[in-house]
Specification:
By secondary structure, this protein is of the alpha+beta class. It contains 30 helices and 14 strands. α6 packs parallel to α9. It starts with a helix and ends with a strand.
Length: 763
């Protein structure tokens, strides 16, 4: 997966609120006055005795969505700017009144009136404009508005006194908000072709001011926003000098007391962006800018050596800062002219860390991870080629098997915590399959077994997850699907412990990430990223929120608050991409919940396309919907905000089959842990009520190969059946239309030994 670096800088402190509870278990009872029929006289079993089935009780666990990569739009088209509305459209007559009201319409004022308004607004008010309703976006953030604010910022930067007396933070934050809105509403807001130069001039004016790097608390906010703003236009070649200035200025004794370290992290994003740009001309300009700042290498190395004593502590932001700094130093080894000195500096960090379990092991882990990503061919020079396995052996000693298809690797989990995690994961399947209505794994998906990796804490997860699994950990957990069609591929997700609300600790991210695994296996053909043409982000993250929090019985207060703001139309959410967290998670939840409640047939049509990898076809479905549901979605949002989203919607789900006879199936129920040896059978029967239109039995998961047989007159065998499903693994489905009332029979026949199989019946 690509690196979620923008999130690292701007939204690390953000804890995502869990979403709303929506679980409904369907109880099956005989009508009053009608006796349930007796069990059938079952014939003698010619094969192995049926296995016992055990379904652990579900244990609620906390969850938070994974943060994935921010991806740029490749669309270079530039729509015309929207005309400026008249001043009469913008509410109160005084800037003070407008600032107090924080009315998004007010930001349609122009010139000096706009500047006065932004300066008079609170930071909270300006921050809310990141979610400005679509109808006000062009008026507030078209290029002429942004140029006005950039010019005002340049003027304020020249006279900056080391504090926020001239509301310089509001001006910087407004420019960030405008870029954020323009990235997601480019057709509405219009192009920013002149703006990068104006922002460069303003940022350079700030750093030319002698107070820009004052090591004082009053300077913390403005300095951080200035370094973030240096990344916003995505022209890293303009800001290499700024990066060097900030790194050279850092002194732990004074900067840490003033809370200025947070202003350092964004400069690493500036460097990363220079390598990451898709524009070859800009990449070459960035290379030239690096060579024009010969002190940059020393600035990076000097920062690490001065700061590492503080960065190796238990603060989560500091852990990321150490990773980011070493990443960028290692990446400079890709520049031929800088490579020898850059490599020598990184090797020194490896050698002075004290080994895999030494006192400064996070430094070694960060360096090893950076080398894997940026200079792997030279791992022998650094002595880190075997570090992934060495760190894994040293820091993940616990290996716990939940089932044949689920195991946990952990750093420090108790037996009770392991049992609770297994039960929570196993118990979630029923709800997922009830919402998904899938018919087993998608074609070519071999991810039948999942590995859950649980680190002891976030500060352990950050360096160790990178060093062991070569993935980004600037997030709340991550699912690594790999290539599901490849033999030997291991699906896994990484998580970590955090304090539990009632005391003790719990695995963060457990159920959200598990939903990603189930969704990828049963709903989405191919590996992560292959579905990008289908624009799946609204679904994948929204579904993970809906399913995980339904299971955990949590209300998504943040989503309810978002619904009240009416920030997005449904048609916009269908184009979601990773970036703005509120849009991805809260609005993804709202979009998926709305579609499941109001337009289930459309969801089923999309799923049918996604399950076969027809991304063009799925886009045709959302394109056909177009703006047709926008008005109804807006009304639904009003109801959601008014309390409807605090209620429990009725989504069907599967439950464990309750009868003590492990051969008996029932309506919407699941038997787990089914097994048989080669040539033998696992038999099942169920009672079909009169008038049943369709009956479906599905097998999935586990190991080996079982084929599914159906018969209505007695046990089903290879020489006595009506229909069968005989694939190469355990993913089998039989659908019977208009089945006869009374008892019918299904059997799993072991083509090879199988175990750990799940059997689901629904009608």
């Amino acid at each position: 997966m690509s690196t979620a670096r923008l999130l690292r800088l701007q939204q690390l402190a953000r804890f995502l609120t869990l979403v709303m509870a929506i679980a409904l278990t369907l109880g099956l009872f005989a009508p009053r006055g009608q006796a349930a029929p007796a069990a059938p006289a079952v014939p003698a079993d010619r094969g192995a005795a049926p296995p016992s089935a055990s379904v652990p009780p579900s244990v609620p666990d906390a969850d938070a969505p994974q943060l994935r990569a921010y991806q740029d739009s490749d669309d270079g088209s530039a729509p015309a700017e929207a005309p400026a509305p008249s001043a009469e459209a913008f509410g109160p007559d005084t800037e003070a009144d407008e600032a107090a009201a924080c009315d998004p319409a007010s930001f349609g004022r122009t010139g000096a009136a706009l500047v006065r308004l932004v300066k008079a607004s609170s930071l909270d008010c300006v921050n809310r404009q990141f979610q400005i309703p679509a109808e006000y976006a062009a008026a507030a953030f078209r290029q002429s508005q942004m140029l006005t604010i950039a010019e005002a910022l340049q003027e304020s930067a020249r006279t900056y006194q080391g504090n926020d007396g001239d509301s310089i933070s509001q001006l910087m934050l407004y420019l960030q908000a405008g870029y954020s809105v323009q990235w997601t509403k480019a057709e509405t807001v219009g192009p920013y072709d002149e703006l990068p130069t104006a922002i460069r001039d303003a940022v350079n004016a700030f750093f030319a001011n002698p107070h820009a790097l004052d090591p004082t608390p009053a300077n913390a906010g403005p300095l951080e926003r200035a370094t973030v703003l240096a990344d916003v236009p995505r022209r890293s070649d303009h800001y290499v000098g700024v990066v060097r200035k900030v790194l050279d200025a850092y002194q732990p004794e004074t900067w840490d007391r003033a809370n200025l370290l947070r202003a350092v992290n964004p400069v690493f994003q500036v460097l990363f962006r220079g390598y990451d740009t898709k524009n070859p001309d800009e990449r070459e300009e960035f290379r030239k800018a690096l060579l024009a700042e010969p002190g940059l290498l020393d600035a990076l190395n000097g920062f690490i050596l001065r700061a590492r004593g503080h960065l190796l502590d238990t603060d989560r932001n500091n852990s990321l800062t150490l990773n980011n700094a070493i990443d960028e130093l290692t990446r400079l080894a890709s520049v031929e002219e800088l490579a020898p000195r850059a490599r020598a500096m990184v090797k020194n960090l490896v050698d002075t860390a004290g080994g895999i379990t030494g006192p400064d092991w996070p430094q070694r882990a960060s360096a090893a991870a950076s080398i894997q990503k940026a200079d792997r061919a030279n791992c022998g020079y650094y002595g880190t080629c075997d570090d992934p396995q060495r760190f894994k052996d040293a820091y993940l000693p616990i290996r716990h098997t939940c089932s044949p298809t689920l195991r946990i690797l952990a750093q420090d989990l108790t037996a009770a915590q392991l049992a609770a995690a297994c039960a929570s994961l196993n118990g979630q399947d029923a709800l997922f399959h009830g919402v998904s209505r899938d018919k087993g794994p998608v074609a070519d998906d071999r991810n039948a077994a999942l590995e859950v990796v649980a680190f002891d804490s976030y500060v352990q997860y950050v360096p160790l997850g990178r060093a062991i699994f070569n993935t980004d950990t600037n997030n709340g957990g991550i699912y690594l699907e790999g290539d599901p069609s490849a033999a030997g591929n291991q699906a896994r997700f990484l998580a970590y412990e955090e304090p539990a609300p009632g005391g003790g600790s719990q695995i963060r991210n457990l159920n959200h990430e598990y939903t990603h695994y189930l969704d990828a296996r049963f709903n989405l053909w191919g590996g992560f990223g292959e579905g990008a043409p289908g624009k799946l982000v609204w679904w994948t993250e929204g579904l993970a929120e809906v399913v995980a929090t339904s299971y955990l019985k949590e209300v998504n207060r943040a989503a309810i608050e978002s619904a009240a703001r009416h920030s997005y139309r449904l048609s916009e959410l269908f184009d979601n991409d990773y970036g703005d967290q509120n849009r991805v998670y809260q609005w993804g939840y709202l979009a998926v919940r709305y579609m499941l409640e109001r337009h289930r047939a459309d969801v089923d049509a999309l799923l049918a396309k996604w399950r076969v990898g027809d991304w063009k076809g799925s886009r045709a479905v959302t394109t056909a919907i177009g703006t047709g549901y926008d008005a109804d979605f807006d009304r639904w949002l009003s109801g959601c905000a008014a309390g409807a989203c605090a209620n429990i919607p009725e989504f069907p789900q599967f439950k464990a089959c309750e009868d003590g006879d492990t051969r008996r199936l029932d309506r919407n129920c699941v038997r787990t842990g089914v097994s048989a040896t080669a040539g033998n059978y696992a038999h099942f029967y169920l009672l079909v009520p009169p008038g049943t239109k369709q009956l479906r039995v599905t097998s999935s998961g586990g190991t080996g190969n079982a084929d599914l047989y159906y018969h209505w007159g007695g046990w089903a065998y290879t020489d006595s059946y009506v229909t069968r499903s005989a694939g190469p693994d355990n993913a089998e489905t039989l659908t019977v239309t208009d089945p006869p009332a009374g008892y019918v029979f299904f059997s799993l026949r072991a083509e090879r030994d199988f175990k750990g199989v799940t059997v689901t019946s629904e009608f």
